[in-house]
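Listing 4. Sequential folding, example run.
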Amino acid sequence: MEKKYAVKNMCCANCAAIAERKAKKVKGVKELELNFMMQRLTVVYEEGADVAAVEAEVIKAIRKIEPEAEIA
C-alpha cells in the first residue's frame, strides 16, 4: 500500500535527508521518500503492516529530527 502526505515546515534539505534516513528504518516501511522541494512524503507500507501504527512511527521519527514538521 502506498500513501502520499503533504509536508510543511521542513527547515532545509539536509534535515529532510536525515529525517528520511531515520523514517526508512521504521518497521513496516517497504519504501519511503521525503522530497524537500516538492514538500511530499511518499510511503510504501509492507504487506500486512498496521498502516496506522507504522504511519505514527514514521511521523514520530521525522519529528525527532524536525519538530516543526507538519505532515498531513
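-- end of first protein; second protein begins --
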Amino acid sequence: MRSTARISRAALLLAVVPFIGLDLTVAWWDRIRPTVAGLPFNLAWVIGWTALTPLCLWGAHRLDRRRVADPGGEGP
C-alpha cells in the first residue's frame, strides 16, 4: 500500500455519493407513504442505497486504479 498516494477527485466524489444519498437527504425521503413494492418509501430508499453503495465504491476503485496505472495521468 502506498502511504503517500492521493485519491483522484472523481474517485473521491463517487465514493461520497452514497453518504450524501443516505445521510444528507433524509428530509426529502422521510415518508411512510407512498410505498415502493409494498415497502414504505424510506425503507425502499435505504435498501436502494445499500445496493448502490458497492457499485459506487467499485467505480471509485476503478477510477483510482486507472489513474495510477496511467503514467501520463494526474500525478500525486
